[in-house]
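We both want to read discrete structure tokens more fluently, so let's practise on a single case. Would you write everything just below, so we can both look at the same thing?
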Amino acid sequence: MRGGGGHFLKEYAPATATSSCSLSLEGKVAIVTGGASGIGEAAVRLFASHGATVVIADIQDHLGSAVAASVGDKCSYMHCDVTDEKQVEALVSHAVAAHGRLDVLFSNAGVMPAPPSGVLDMDIAELDRVMAVNVRGAACTVKHAARAMVAGGTRGSIVCTASVAASVGGLSAASYTASKHAVLGLVRGAAGELGKHGVRINCVSPFGVGTPLACRYSGATPAQVEESCCALACLKGVVLKPSHIAEAALFFASDESAFVTGHNLVVDGGFTVSPINFP
């Protein structure tokens, strides 16, 4: 840099170098949809361990209640089908009534087409189901969480689970790819609207993770899903786990990302930027 560039670095670099990154959610109230298993469960446990009071929303009542009980007093479970706007509205109202505020939404609930099919054989009813959960469900949760944050004067954070399929095609069924592109569009559109209220919204886009959902979709074991994705990723020596996605969501949920909104954080070991593994 010219002129004052050196002065700028001299003046500000020490403060940056010594600042701590605690990723604390102490005192914050969070909702995690799809929190009974997989990435959602990992996020519930991580958020709670960093001080948040967490409300799990899912349709897997037995699993959701068990996760809440295992986390402890700062975690509860509520049945919620995210495709039903009235249930989503009731979920948000419950969180605010029970805890006085809403600071974080992790809109993570999602489905994959079953069985997966190509465009030529696409089951339109299945397409409707995928879009209803992945897109309508995300829109419902974003709408009502954002309303609660704005009404409460909370500088809240909304995080949506998208996918590498929101960036590239051909990795999964076209119906799923379309739904995740739509989630990314929802996040970018909402960021422009919510910023004036101090509410942030971002996306986390995982590569293949060996979750129960991914295993049901692919017919593979968790280890097989992980092995396939490790082979495709250019970054070696790391196996993608639900905890990695939860940690990315934690960053967005925390005040450490206070000036980040409308961003899509792709957690894919470099696959989408370098799909060819060089020797």
Q: What stands out?
A: Confidence is low (pLDDT under 50) at residues 1-20. Strands lie at 29-33, 53-58, 75-79, 104-107, 157-161, 200-206, 264-267. The CA atoms of residues 57 and 78 lie 5 Å apart. The chain is about 45% helix and 15% strand.
